[in-house]
Amino acid sequence: MRLRLQLTGWDRRTLILTDTPRPDCPLCAGHGGLAYDYGDHEGEYAGTEWDPCTCWDETRRRTLLRLPRLRRRHQVARDPWSDEPPF
Question: Are the C-beta atoms of 52 and 58 separated by less than 8 Å?
Answer without folding.
Answer: yes
